[in-house]
């Protein structure tokens, strides 16, 4: 895809969801390169800062491999108050996350970082609100049995079977899936990368 700057777009993420979301708005990255960083929160780290920091670290870790190109990275954080719910390490932790989310509102915070062709960093942080209906033990058991909770922040995927749990959302839906498309397209346009015109 052509762009005004000399750089091509590199997606610094192994997430198939983020790649699918970019393709949804007509963007096909030149390269997809997973960033290997420690995603552990700092002690007392705020969820929004955590999401932004990890997005920046992923972009920074990837940029040296692609000098002169545009690097796009993102991170998604599920939070209940100040508590960050990461990717559950096993089904027991996923169960605990879903029990915590049951019947209450939580936040999904997306951090997006773009490094432009000359090395400048541009960021956005986007917050969406989600409320689950009250979940029964059978609801949680059935969901865990399907395996969809694996490698998902907060232990669920809104675009999958967990959609039936969602009673309310406010804000960007694509942010909850894994990449806020409006803000991402705006960032990319700001560094000279042409996204296809939207109808």
Tally of individual helices: 6
Structural class: alpha/beta
Please report the first level of CATH classification, the CATH class: Alpha Beta
Round the Cα radius of gyration to an integer and report it: 17 Å
**Under the CATH scheme, which architecture would be assigned?**
Alpha-Beta Complex
Chain-averaged pLDDT? 93
Oligomer type: single chain
Helix content: 25-40%
* Order of helical and strand elements: EHEHEEHEEHEHH
What are the SSEs and their pairings?
Blueprint: E1 9-11, H1 16-24, E2 31-32, H2 47-62, E3 70-80, E4 83-85, H3 91-101, E5 105-115, E6 121-132, H4 137-146, E7 166-170, H5 173-177, H6 181-190
Parallel strand pairs: 1-2, 1-3
Antiparallel strand pairs: 3-4, 3-5, 5-6, 6-7
Helix pairs in contact: 3-4
Task: Walk me through what this model shows.
- It is a single chain.
- The chain is of the alpha/beta class and 199 residues long.
- Helix content is 31%, strand content 24%.
- Strands 1, 2, 3, 4, 5, 6 and 7 form a seven-stranded mixed sheet that branches.
- Strand 1 (9-11), helix 1 (16-24) and strand 2 (31-32) form a beta-alpha-beta unit.
- It is elongated and about 50 Å long.
- Residues 1-5 have low confidence and may be disordered.
């Amino acid at each position: 895809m052509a762009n005004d700057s000399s750089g091509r777009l590199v997606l610094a993420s192994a997430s198939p969801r983020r790649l699918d979301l970019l393709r949804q708005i007509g963007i096909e990255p030149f390269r997809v390169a997973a960033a290997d960083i420690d995603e552990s929160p700092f002690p007392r780290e705020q969820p929004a800062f955590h999401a932004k920091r990890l997005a920046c670290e992923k972009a920074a870790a990837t940029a040296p491999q692609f000098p002169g190109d545009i690097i796009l990275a993102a991170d998604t954080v599920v939070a209940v108050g100040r508590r960050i719910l990461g990717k559950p390490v096993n089904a027991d932790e996923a169960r605990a996350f879903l029990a915590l989310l049951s019947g209450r509102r939580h936040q999904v915070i997306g951090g997006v970082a773009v490094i432009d062709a000359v090395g400048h960093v541009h960021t956005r942080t986007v917050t969406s609100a989600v409320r689950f209906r009250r979940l029964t033990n059978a609801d949680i058991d059935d969901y865990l049995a399907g395996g969809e909770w694996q490698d998902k922040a907060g232990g669920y995927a809104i675009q999958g079977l967990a959609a039936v749990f969602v009673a309310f959302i406010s804000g960007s839906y694509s942010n909850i899936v894994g990449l806020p498309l409006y803000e991402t397209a705006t960032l990319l346009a700001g560094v000279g990368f042409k996204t296809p015109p939207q109808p």
